[in-house]
UniProtKB/TrEMBL annotation:
Signal peptide: none
Keyword Transcription regulation: yes
Official protein name in the record: Sigma-54 dependent transcriptional regulator
InterPro entries reported in the protein's UniProt record: AAA+_ATPase, AAA_lid_NorR, CheY-like_superfamily, Homeodomain-like_sf, HTH_Fis, P-loop_NTPase, Sig_transdc_resp-reg_receiver, Sigma_54_int
SMART domains for this protein: AAA, REC
Classification via PROSITE patterns: RESPONSE_REGULATORY, SIGMA54_INTERACT_2, SIGMA54_INTERACT_3, SIGMA54_INTERACT_4
Length: 456
């Protein structure tokens, strides 16, 4: 039996009955209707693979103009629909015209069942091929940024990092949902990609979605997709991130920023493993491995009723808590050397080394921005240094900022630390949101959400 849904449109009850009786033994689902005026409703409610379309509906008509009109209408909804035209008044000229307008095939009534099945079978293969090509095109377009940027590997020998790597290797081959916790800049995306790279899905898509920078009004259309005409600028059907990640891994970063209504929508998708595009009513199955991350205290948020407990249960089958850089000891120097090599190569400079005073400064600094801040500091140092040795002056860690960071308590709660970092950046840049966001490694939208969240 073919895994296909066939829609048959014909004004002859006998034709509909005979086609349904034969095809219901050959395909997954058969839908019939007498009027092409029902096409829009039927296509919006069902995942149709093949359409058998009669060419004449008015009494006495035999020129096929109606069929050609409805063929164009169907293909305007989705050019990838597979349409087979049917008529009792066939001629070569009409068949050629139908094929030129986008019909997949042309059959005469009454048909032989073997011929009908062969036509349906070929059409089903074509539909599946079109789907794969379309999905690959969308994936290619959506992932260009990530493909050109590449990913870092996990660098570190600290005991906490070794334990995390051991857990990662146990969890990665499974499909367990993983929640990665840690301060901003600790490498949550790097760990997410390592999980994907060591999983059974490593040759499939890794889809990164930054929920912190996603406008609330675009949440559904970006994650779940939309149908043509769903809103003013929806000029074509577009699959969402979940559909594009089908078979692979979807990484939802900054999940703690979701509002309660959006949490409910996400939970529904995770529970049912289906998505419904905006402007449609039909459900589409998705098979994705879920990884989430946040720097926010989700358990505290559950207590305060700002994060759904059932969603937390759904996403944290396994938790990974990444340590801040200030607690990773000599990993700071390992990472510094790694970044020096990367940026020396990028900017076509000889490999740099760190002076002893520069090493001491890196080890004693508290790194509120964690690995991301270290990366930025080393990139700047490689660019600005004149010799082969990077000195403490090249690091440009000002004494004032250094002293302030030294007073930061190690056990400060993540939320308090984030608030302090946001306030410091805004004060430093005298309220300039663009500059403050750039220093924090955030988008303007993400920074505005934090300002509102902390009442700054």
């Amino acid at each position: 039996m073919l895994d296909a849904t066939v829609l048959i449109i014909d004004d002859d009850d006998d034709i509909l009955l005979s086609a349904r009786l034969f095809l219901k033994q050959q395909v997954k689902q058969v839908i019939t209707c007498k009027s092409p005026k029902e096409i829009n409703v039927l296509l919006s409610k069902n995942e149709v693979d093949i359409i058998l379309l009669d060419m004449n509906y008015q009494k006495g008509a035999s020129d096929g103009r109606e069929g050609l009109y409805w063929l164009e209408h169907i293909l305007s909804i989705d050019k990838d629909y597979v349409v087979i035209l049917m008529t009792a008044f066939g001629n070569v000229e009409l068949a050629v015209k139908a094929i030129k307008k986008g019909a997949t095939d042309f059959i005469l009534k009454p048909w032989e069942n073997e011929k009908l099945f062969a036509t349906i079978s070929a059409a089903s293969k074509l539909r599946e091929s079109n789907r794969k090509v379309k999905k690959l095109e969308k994936i290619h377009s959506s992932l260009q940024k990530d493909l050109t940027r590449g990913f870092e590997n996990i660098v570190g020998q600290a005991e906490g990092i070794k334990q995390l790597q051991t857990t990662l290797l146990k969890v990665a081959p499974t499909d367990a949902n993983v929640l990665i916790l840690g301060e901003n800049g600790t490498g949550k995306q790097v760990f997410a990609y390592e999980i994907h790279g060591n999983s059974q899905r490593k040759n499939q898509v890794f889809m990164h979605v930054d929920l912190g920078s996603l406008n609330e009004n675009l949440f559904e259309s970006e994650l779940f997709g939309y149908a043509k005409g769903a809103f003013t600028d929806a000029k074509e059907d577009k699959p969402g991130r979940f559909e594009l990640a089908d078979g692979g891994t979807i990484f939802l970063d900054e999940i703690g920023n979701l509002t309660l209504p959006l949490q409910a929508k996400l939970l529904s998708v995770l529970q049912n493993r289906t998505v419904t595009r905006l402007g449609e009513s039909k459900e589409r199955k998705v098979n994705v491995r879920l990884i989430t991350a946040t720097n926010m205290p989700l358990n505290e948020m559950v207590t305060k009723n700002t994060f759904r407990q059932d969603l937390l249960f759904r996403i944290n089958t396994v938790e990974l808590l990444l340590p801040p850089l200030r607690k990773r000891g000599t990993d700071i120097l390992l990472l510094a050397n790694h970044f020096m090599q990367v940026f020396s190569s990028k900017y076509h400079k000889e490999n740099r080394s760190l002076s002893n005073k520069a090493k001491d400064m890196l080890l004693s600094y508290k790194w509120p921005g964690n690995v991301r801040e270290l990366q930025h500091v080393l990139e700047r140092a490689v660019i600005m240094s004149d010799g082969n040795e990077i000195t403490e002056e090249d690091l440009q860690l000002s004494p004032q900022r250094f002293a302030q960071n030294n007073t930061m308590p190690d056990e400060m709660a993540l939320g308090d630390m984030e608030k302090m970092m946001v306030q410091k950046a805004i004060d430093k840049h005298k309220g300039n949101i663009s500059k403050a966001a750039a220093e924090l490694g955030l988008t303007r939208a993400a920074l505005y959400r934090r300002i509102e969240k902390f009442g700054i």
